[in-house]
Amino acid sequence: MKNILLLYGNELSHTALKDLINADSAMHLVEEVSDSGEAIEKIRAQKFDVVILDVSSPEKNGLETFCDLKQAYPALPILIINGSDQVDRMANFTRLGCKGYLSYTATSAQVIPAIKAIARGLSYLASTHEQLDERLYPMLHERLSLRELQVFFKLIKGQAVNSVAEELSIAPGSVSVFRSKILKKMNMRNNASLIHYALDHHLIS
Description:
Layout: E1 2-7, H1 11-22, E2 27-33, H2 36-45, E3 50-54, H3 62-72, E4 78-83, H4 87-95, E5 100-103, H5 111-119, E6 124-125, H6 146-155, H7 161-168, H8 172-186, H9 191-200
């Protein structure tokens, strides 16, 4: 039996996912949480075969949540549900180590096979995304590494360097180094430029 942790998005999607998982005798929905902090505490306490991250909630940034989880547990199999249907958005998740990705256009019949595939160590992408177009141009923040993205999301929320360092359990000097790399890779001058970029691209409300 596969133990599942669900980070849920909107209520309708949450209910539908629960019904799908509970209908399969090989699945056990052990925990349901609403944010990455809660999820990390649960993962620390017990082993999960798959984490399902539903990114349909408009109040939360799914990419930030993914980065927090993946940085804390690099080997953790994560299935993204209700992601963007744009191939380059999916490609960014897979670049960062995502093993499974279903866009909002995927059917319910794909959910259980996706869970079972990544629980076995395989990758699962919706069939329409099997071929990635290498000519697609990534957005500026999609040039960043996993850790750089983590720092980026904290900075665009207005957090100070010391606050970011404490939250990520790294030295303030390391945060400053990551900040410099972020600004260089994104061709930005300061935190204000990062915030404007994030607002323009709906990465923060």
